[in-house]
Amino acid sequence: MTTSSSATTTLSKSSSSKQRVSYFYQPDVGHFYYGPSHPMKPHRIKMAHHLILTYGLYRQMECYRSHPATPDEMSAFHSEDYIQFLGKVTPDNLRGYGNQMQKFNVGEYTDCPVFDGLYEFTQLYTGASLDGAVKLNRGDCDIAINWSGGLHHAKKSEASGFCYINDIVLAILELLKVHARVLYIDIDVHHGDGVEEAFYCTDRVMTFSLHKYGDFFPGTGHIKDTGAKEGTGFSVNAPLTSGMTDEAYKRIFKPVMDKIMEVFQPGAIVLQCGADSLTGDRLGCFNLSLKGHAECVRYTKSFNVPTLVLGGGGYTIRNVARCWAYETSVCLDVDLPNEIPYNDYFEYYAPDFQLHLTPEQRENMNTEASLESVRVDLLTQLMSLKGAPSVQMAEVPPDFEIIKEDAVAEKERRSTKEDRSGEGMNDGGAEDDTRSDRGKTKDGRGEKREHEAELAG
Ligand SMILES: [Zn+2]
């Protein structure tokens, strides 16, 4: 591919370049409901969308109504029997699927319930990520955003951690049709295990995940889990602990990103912006402000590489909406006033009705020494790579059409299904985590796991 000197030019950083942004949204995606005590609330995507509209951000980007992903598209990663099962199981017929529910980790004894419209929900969030990848592949935009995507825990034949279909893996596979190398960055508080596992044995995808590690779901993401076979060294894990501050997060993120961009030179980036790493999250334990979280978006954007920006976790939903609206403005290089504009969900932002969050007064359990050790270990890992792999690209396979959406008409849309979930007033409290004990160990240090790659080469 490129020599390192020419690559330095193409990957040069800039702080104020205007990039063309495309935004993908399907108005029904916010109407699905996991269940009364389940912390995952798709409604947060609709809340973020309304903030984006009322801040006027839709005027500065191309807004698209995404297509629902087809079983055929999903089968690029997932097994056929798993996709068929998701397409058939409903809350009314699930008694007939006992064995399969166990096999695919779905149902009431798991954190992945069968709810009304489950399959349609997966089609919507997945289609939007695929549309974003196609738009980037065509060179029609520089940044594509899908806040409904980023479900990083789903496996080839198994649901996991509120995730059923892995839209990220599918979008990366789409990007690999055009780009020799794709970088995946995951700033969710949980390890990006499903994506790492899918590309564990290939050097065409580098995964970089920063996460809480030790006695925490999903239990993977040890610093020594660096990939296997061709992919050795291409899985990058920053295991962290509770109380991460903006300053501490930046001290890992920026130098590691600099080194990754230098040695890996990706043609495209997928950035998973899970908002459960924010301060005050219902399930998370980091202490990041919106600005600290969004600094990762800003910094990634400064490399001027085509980027797919996705959502992910985030369980204090008023803060998830704040975060993703603010990060949309960062993608657009627009300053937002701190006063939340009046919108359909205005009361959620009480009592201050401000955009930005103040971190809590609590100790950062990550010590200077532990942070320095993570930083040095990851830079050492990256420096040992023998440069970026080159790939002979075949003819680009065909993709599909994308339907453009009129965002203003969208704003006027009123749904009859609205508010059937009634969430938002009770977010807070770790007892709300319905996830299994996976990743919890007696000594509280987590486990280092060997994992099989689902996709090689
Ligand atoms: Zn998460």
UniProtKB/TrEMBL annotation:
Positions bound to a divalent metal cation: D188, H190, D276
UniProt main location, coarse: nucleus
InterPro entries with a match to the protein in the record: HDAC_I/II (IPR003084), HDACs (IPR000286), His_deacetylse_dom (IPR023801), His_deacetylse_dom_sf (IPR037138), Ureohydrolase_dom_sf (IPR023696)
EC nos: 3.5.1.98
GO cellular component assignments: nucleus
Annotated segments matching region Disordered: 403-457
Protein name: Histone deacetylase
Taxonomic placement: Eukaryota, Sar, Stramenopiles, Ochrophyta, Bacillariophyta
